[in-house]
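Lecture notes, unit on protein representations.

Consider one protein chain, 182 amino acids long.
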Amino acid sequence: MKMNLPNKLTILRILLVPVFVVVLLIHPDQPVFRYTACGIFCIASLTDMLDGYIARKYDLITNFGKFMDPLADKLLVCSALICLVELHQLPAWVCIVIISREFIISGFRLVAATDGIVIAASYWGKFKTVFQMLMVIIMVLNLPFGLWKRTSTVFMWVALLLTVVSLIDYIAKNANVLKEQN
């Protein structure tokens, strides 16, 4: 299979996940590692926007991309959340709620795909992703200023709220996917 640019960007994002995790966790108390990890996370996040844009603009949408792009996003964000739990910056229950939502939506998409139905990302899901990524960036930076600490808390609650709202939106719009077809 020949890899096009969007698919290469998706693979790059997947390869950046372990690099991000190692850099963040190797010396989390040293700012240079935090800033480097944040830079890696930002680059990986930008590949998400870029690969989708290129794929749509130049009609380079592939089955590989349809499957691997959302998986790469989940690997990146979930890995970051788990690291933040490890660093005692994010409550484990918040991580569990966010990851659970991802499993539920992936399950919905898998069931829908068996019936030939494609469940596209909703605006709620896109807002959720943006706020989750911003929350991760702010928390990874771990700036000592009081305003930054409050900002990370606000972003955590907004990301959590959008996670739940987007889950409810997906379920409400796609409940028919779970109905048995005889």
